[in-house]
Specification:
globular, alpha/beta, 22 strands, 6-stranded mixed beta sheet, 7-stranded mixed beta sheet, 20% strand, 40% helix
C-alpha cells in the first residue's frame, strides 16, 4: 500500500519514469554508488532502494547554484518575496501528498505530518515578508564620513538535514537562506529524501531560478563530505548528532568556512509542587513522547519536586499507557515506530544500559513490544542525573524521572549537562518561573508549556547543543555578509599617513 501510493505521488511530480536521485536544475540525476535502502519502520518492508550520489555531482550542483544565485540576487527584493510567498502557496496546495510522503518515510502519524506541511508553508511566507526588509543602517561615526552598513548574500550555502523531521527542517533551513539572497545545496538524510525533493521542485515551479535549491540524495560520509570539501559554498548548516556535527565543523573549518550547528539535547523539564499538575502531566507527555521522542528538544529529563515525585510519576505512567502506538498511516495512531533499525537498536541498547545501571522501569507496558517493526512503547525510568541514560541522548520515547529538593537543586541538576538546547518549568509562582528561566542554560525555554516553536523566534543551543541560530531575524544575519561603506563628505578631507595602523 505505502509503496504503491508513494509511486503514484512521485509520478505526479517527476513523471512516470521517476527514479530516486539528486534533484539539480530541474532534473533528476541518478547516482552510481552504493545501493541505499529505505525501509518502512512499521514492518521492516523495503520501500525503495537507490544508488548513492557520486562526486561528479559536486561541480554540477555547485555551478548550478552559482548561476541561479546570481539570477536570484539580481531580482528586485520585492520580486523575490513574491516568489517565496508563492512557494508557500504551492506547498499548501500539496498538503495531502506531502503529508503522506512524510508519514510513510519519516514514520510520523498522518495528522502530525499534515501539521508539518502547514508549518513549512508558513516558513516561506514568513521570510517572504523579510525579503525586501533586510536593509542596513547608517552609523553616526565621529568623523566627516557617511558610514552605512548593508547586508549581502554569502553566495552558496550547504544545508544537511536529519531523518527525524525531514520536511520541517528542509523548510526551516531553506527559507531564511534564500530570503537573504543565497542559493542552497541541500543534503537530506539518505533515509528520508523524498519530501525534500518535492520541495525543491515546488520552489522552481513557483518561479525561482532552476538550481537555486538543489537536493543531493546520498550518504553524508560520501557525497556530503565531498560537497563540503569541493563545492563552491560559503557556509554549512548541519542538523543532527553532536558527534557528526564535530566532523562537519572540522571539515568546514579546513576550508575556513563557518558553520551553523543544531545538535542534540538532554533538556530538563522541571515540575514544582505548586504547578497545575494536570497541565504539567499533559505537558510532560507531549515533551517526550510526541514524535516518538525523536526530537532534539524532547523533555528527556523530567525533574520533579520530591514532595510530589511518587504521585506524579505514577499518574504519568497511567496516562502514558493509554497512548495509542501503531502504524503511522492508520487513523488514531498517536505514536509511530522509531524511524530506522539503527536508531531502534540504539534505543534498545540504552534501555538495557539504564536498567543495568539501576534505573527502574515504572509499571506499565513493556518498553519493547513483541512483533514486527521498530516499536518502543512510551517508557518512564526512575533514575538520577548521574546515570548514563540521563547524560546521553536516547532519542526515543523514553524519559528519565529525577527528583529534586528545591529551586536551587533543580537548577543545579538542569545545568549539570553538556547540552543546552531547551528546557521548561511548571510552577504557579511567577517570580520563580522567571528566575529559573534566567538561570537554566538553554537556547529555548518554556514556562508552563513545552515545544512551542515558531519560525519568527530564534532557535539554537548552548554547549554541545551547537551554535548559531536558524530562525527569526537572527537566521537572516547568519546567511548574510556585512559590508561597511565609508563615504567622505568633507570638502577638504584630512588623510592620515599612519599607514599600517591596525594591521597585525
Amino acid at each position: 500500500m505505502s509503496k504503491t501510493k508513494i509511486d503514484g505521488i512521485l509520478s505526479q511530480f517527476f513523471g512516470p519514469d521517476f527514479q530516486i536521485g539528486s534533484y539539480v536544475k530541474g532534473e533528476i540525476i541518478k547516482g552510481h554508488g552504493e545501493i541505499i535502502e529505505m525501509r518502512r519502520a512499521h514492518d521492516d518492508t523495503l520501500l525503495f532502494s537507490y544508488p548513492d550520489a557520486d562526486e561528479s555531482l559536486v561541480k554540477i550542483a555547485s555551478d548550478a547554484a552559482t548561476q541561479a544565485g546570481k539570477q536570484w540576487w539580481a531580482m528586485a527584493a520585492k520580486d523575490r518575496g513574491r516568489i517565496m510567498y508563492q512557494i508557500g502557496a504551492a506547498i499548501r496546495q500539496e498538503i495531502d501528498n506531502l503529508a503522506f510522503i512524510e508519514c510513510a518515510t519519516a514514520n510520523k502519524p498522518y495528522n502530525d505530518a499534515r501539521g508539518d506541511v502547514t508549518r513549512v508553508a508558513e516558513m516561506f511566507e514568513y521570510y517572504a515578508g523579510w525579503a525586501d526588509k533586510l536593509h542596513g543602517e547608517v552609523i553616526p561615526v565621529p568623523t566627516s564620513h557617511l558610514n552605512y552598513v548593508c547586508y549581502e548574500p554569502l553566495g552558496n550555502v550547504m544545508q544537511i538535514t536529519p531523518w527525524n523531521a525531514p520536511l520541517n527542517t528542509c523548510g526551516w533551513q531553506i527559507a531564511p537562506a534564500i530570503a537573504a539572497g543565497n542559493a542552497v545545496i541541500l543534503k537530506p538524510s539518505e533515509l528520508t529524501p523524498l519530501s525534500s525533493m518535492i520541495i525543491g521542485l515546488l520552489i522552481e515551479r513557483a518561479g525561482a531560478p532552476k538550481g537555486l535549491v538543489s537536493v543531493i540524495v546520498g550518504y553524508g560520509h560520501t557525497i556530503g563530505q565531498a560537497m563540503i570539501a569541493g563545492a563552491d559554498i560559503r557556509k554549512v548548516c548541519f542538523v543532527g548528532s553532536p558527534m557528526t556535527g564535530r566532523h562537519i565543523a572540522i571539515a568546514a573549518a579546513q576550508r575556513c568556512i563557518p558553520a551553523i550547528l543544531e545538535l542534540g539535547g538532554k533538556s530538563a523539564n522541571i515540575v514544582f509542587d505548586d504547578a497545575n499538575i494536570e497541565q504539567a502531566l499533559r505537558g510532560a507527555m507531549a515533551a517526550i513522547f510526541g514524535g516518538t521522542g525523536q526530537s532534539c528538544v524532547s523533555g528527556s529529563r523530567l525533574l520533579i519536586q520530591e514532595t510530589i515525585y511518587d504521585r506524579f510519576v505514577a499518574d504519568l505512567a497511567l496516562a502514558s499507557a493509554k497512548i495509542r502506538v501503531g502504524d503511522p498511516e492508520e487513523q488514531g495512531t498517536e505514536i509511530g515506530p522509531v524511524n530506522n533499525p539503527k536508531q531502534y537498536r540504539h534505543v534498545c541498547t540504552m534501555l538495557e544500559k539504564a536498567q543495568a545501571e539501576g534505573a527502574v522501569v515504572v509499571a506499565g507496558r513493556e518498553p519493547i513490544p513483541e512483533g514486527a517493526g521498530y516499536y518502543v512503547n512510551p517508557t518512564i525510568l526512575n533514575g538520577n542525573n548521574e546515570m548514563y541514560c540521563a547524560r546521553e541522548e536516547i532519542f526515543g520515547p523514553v524519559v528519565v524521572a529525577i527528583p529534586f529538593r528545591d529551586e536551587a537543586d533543580a537548577i543545579r541538576i538542569a545545568n549539570d549537562s553538556r547540552f543546552g538546547l531547551a528546557g521548561a518549568v511548571w510552577t504557579n509562582n511567577v517570580a520563580r518561573a522567571h528566575r529559573v528561566a534566567s538561570k537554566v542554560n538553554a537556547g529555548t525555554f518554556w514556562i508552563n508549556g513545552y515545544k512551542s516553536i515558531h519560525v519568527s523566534s530564534p532557535f539554537g543551543g548552548y554547549g554541545d547543543s551547537g551554535y548559531g541560530r536558524s530562525s527569526g531575524i537572527e537566521a537572516l544575519r547568519e546567511y548574510s555578509e556585512v559590508k561597511s561603506v565609508w563615504v567622505e563628505t568633507a570638502e577638504n578631507p584630512v588623510f592620515s599617513f599612519n599607514y599600517g595602523a591596525g594591521e597585525e
